[in-house]
Hints:
CATH superfamily of the domain at 26-199: CheC-like
Keywords: Cell projection, Cilium, Flagellum
CATH class of the domain at 26-199: Alpha Beta
Organism: Flavimaricola marinus
Radius of gyration: 43 Å
Protein name: Flagellar motor switch protein FliM
Helix content: 25-40%
Domain Flagellar motor switch protein FliN-like C-terminal: 221-288
Pfam family, one: FliMN_C
Shape: elongated
Amino acid sequence: MGQMNSQDMLRRLLRAKTEAEPQGQMTGGRVVRLAIARAADEALGLSLTVLGVNQEVEDLDSMVKRLSGDWMLIGLVREDELVGVAGLDLQARAAAVEMQTLGQLRSAPAAERAITPSDVALCSPLVTGFLTELEEASRDTELAGWTDGATVGARISDARAVGLALSENRYRYIGVTLDLGTGERQGTILLALPASPATEKEPEAQTGRADLFKANFQATVMEAPAILHAVLHHMTLPLSKVAKFQVGDTVPLPGVTVGSVRMEAPGGQVLGRARLGQVTGMRAVRLEVAAPATLAEVQLPDRRSAAPAAAERPEPQVIPDQRMDVE
Length: 327
């Protein structure tokens, strides 16, 4: 480690002032400071100082604009659904990697390099600890419930992918600027989750949402176009006869009446019956209830009378035994 300069001394004094603050009403900013300090100590063994906390509640587009730069972005999921994002800048993720691979921080700031899967794996414990500490420490503050149930997911490539993956919502953004405790190294970590706290879904609320979805789905389906054919008669004719049809010819429809109209679906399924008529001079059909099927009595012959009497049955003929001699 290099020699302590004036800036290092100021940061140490700021840390001492923060740690010496009297215990009083916990605010959101103070909860964030304590949570990240504890998470870094427990997950990385790193003692750091929080230089500043920036909190904003904004829409998705405004939040995404904050993610441009050298951030390593990690998705935050709740019940297998992507709901937010965590981010570490170059120096913050380098500190997490160095503490877990070297056991200490380098004095010089980390050089820019491509993000690897190992970086994500080594930084995930810090993010997980930050979420856990916030959940436990924010019970009586404006952050109560904000991180409940949120866990670390997969890496997200860039800010544009975040904007496409997250739903339109109001998001609480928290950015924490960190003094990493070595030289002039500073880093930043951020969290962004829906501003409304995560609450357990009550059965009544679930039922209400299910009913609303059912009603909306039914309304959408009922707006779908339906095609009906009013068919008066079907007939089959030879092509030679059809080819001789002329304008003005009369085509007989045997057995057809104004009540013979069938309402058919495009596949030919009969949906109902109708009667042909007019409405204000326009051809129309009136839907009718199909006549119920009726059962008629059928006289069956009496089996006893149909069968011949035993006395009248002819005697079976006995064929005499005929033998043939074969020499």
